[in-house]
Amino acid sequence: MTPITGLDLSGFTEREPGVWTDEAGLVLSVHFFPLVPDLPAPLHEFERLRTALAAGVGGHGGNLIEAVPGTLHGVPALRQLIKMPLPGRPHGQAFIGSWTVPKAGCGTVLKVQAAEGGTTGLREAMVLDRVGPENYFRPHPYAAGGQFGGLPSHVADDEQWDAQFPDHPLTRVRAALHRITPTVTFDERFRQLPPFGGPAQPPHPGPAPAAPPRRGWFRRGTGR
Predict the structure, then answer these.
(1) Which of 4, 39, 205, 217 is 20 to 30 A (C-alpha) from 32?
(2) Long-range contacts of residues 56-62, Cβ cutoff 8 Å, at least 24 apart
């Protein structure tokens, strides 16, 4: 169950509750967490937030390609695009695009992901050949001229190359996220919940806050 009440699922087939795939292997999923979101900083401290997120992704071997503030159905949210190495394989990457919608005591995530198949690195090799090695790799945009470890930052991940590689998983993830974003609607009860103010604080004496409603929110297969 999530507070999402509308979502364009054109081209997707439901595989299990809250998870859909398309014919090309793109995976769309929605999630609800009845806990204080684990974001390292509030949305209004965005530079600190994205720097900490990028360091965390790099520490797990991946790379935060971008983190952008925005809104879903008028609710403040965070859009991320991440690449991770495929586990158990010497080559290949998975690409994950997501919207995180944090509230004070809960959060919702919409996620789109796809992985490279048999042929890997073609986009990177062709872009490297076009721009040259001296213009290919670059410092991580959120690391103040440095890197965070994990997968490297380079220009082949830029959106400007998507049109030339329409079947690449990064292109498909980014395009699906762009298409779906304006179709998302939320239950009004979720929209009115208090905003996320930052990471959870150590527990203190006193009554626990009431948990937000968890049932009856998501209507699967609806359009906007």
Answers:
(1) 205
(2) 57/82, 57/84, 57/148, 57/150, 58/140, 58/147, 58/148, 58/149, 58/150, 58/151, 59/148, 59/149, 59/150, 60/84, 60/150, 61/85, 61/149, 61/150, 61/151, 62/150, 62/151
- What are the residue ranges spanned by the domains of the chain? 4-190
The parts of the chain modelled with pLDDT lower than 50 are 205-224
Give the global pTM: 0.88
Residue 202: per-residue pLDDT? 59
CA distance 8 to 22: 13
Distance CA 82, CA 63 (A): 6
User: Tokens 């520490």, residue?
Assistant: 59
